[in-house]
Amino acid sequence: MEALLWYLFESSNMLKLKTLKMIFFSHIHNTHAAQIHPRHTMKSLLSISSHVVHGYVGNRAITFPLQYMGWDVDAINTTNYSNHPGYGSLQGSASAPDAIRDVLQGLHHVLDLNSYDLILTGYTPNAGVLSVVKDEVVQVLQKQDGKIPHWIVDPVLGDNGRLYVSEKVIPVYKEILSTGLVSLITPNQFEFETLSEAKIIDWQTCEVAVKAFAENYKVGSIVISSVEIDNQLHCVGYTDGNIFSKPIHKIDCDFNGCGDLFTGLVANSYYDNGYNITPESIASVLSTLHNILQFSFDFELQKQGQAPKVVKDIKIVAAKEYL
């Protein structure tokens, strides 16, 4: 009898303990849920760009920085290369247009692509892939109701007067811009001149070309990553009819992937500023980019014992403190 009473006593205590646990954890859950405000939810972005196994270009230069800054990044890879071309050789292949279409349509089956805050398109290896990207993204952005992502286009064509891609890509980019659905474009000077068919030689020609481009293509915001005027590099921004520039503190070195990293940083800044760019936000982006590039330069300087002319791999992870 005594053993039975002790068992009932213990069972009663266990029941009470379980009940208290349920009340406690229910309170914690409800308190935590109440603290989650819409502005604290994860920012989401779909990035369509190149992929390399080694190095930091394309999606490899975009994904980690944005994740570190609080983004949920989904990446579609338009290439699958061992490394970027800056090494002098590479192996792997560009994604086929049908493969990119399959991936995008597969996404449609598991989520609403309109749930993304931003869609970012970067390097595409050929006109076929870019045409597929255009068709699929336009379909998403032409939705008439609900949330519509902002489209950021980095028209990766080339630099220093030389194309990296086929000339057949150029008219496809113009088709993309002609949709009127692009919110922000981030070309370098060569890419902007190629798409605008206007040469920038001074501030007057720069302002005329940028405003004409915005009016022609109905692009709300333009950020030209680097424009050289009077032997000085400037980042040129345009939004709502206003144009501004910020000087770039140049490091005497070439950095593979810095354009992709720049676009990722601009995307974050653009979102955080209510889908807008300002002189202050661009100055902050340039400061962050400079710190990462300087860190990478100093790393190679210490490693090689002399100042590098080219940094093939930006030290994005090691320099994360600057993000």
Automatic annotation (TrEMBL):
Ranges where the Pyridoxamine kinase/Phosphomethylpyrimidine kinase domain occurs: 136-268
Family annotation (NCBIfam families): pyridox_kin
Family listed: Belongs to the pyridoxine kinase family.
SUPFAM superfamilies for the chain: Ribokinase-like (SSF53613)
GO cellular component: cytosol
Record-linked InterPro entries: PM/HMP-P_kinase-1, PyrdxlKinase, Ribokinase-like
Enzyme Commission number: 2.7.1.35
Keywords associated with the record: ATP-binding, Kinase, Nucleotide-binding, Transferase
Pfam annotation, one family: Phos_pyr_kin
A GO molecular-function descriptor: pyridoxal kinase activity
Listed CDD domains: pyridoxal_pyridoxamine_kinase (cd01173)
Record's protein name: pyridoxal kinase
Coiled coil: none
One GO process term, biological-process aspect: pyridoxal 5'-phosphate salvage
Superkingdom to which the source organism belongs: Eukaryota
Taxonomic path: Eukaryota, Fungi, Dikarya, Ascomycota, Saccharomycotina
Enzyme class: transferase
Organism: Candida orthopsilosis (strain 90-125) (Yeast)
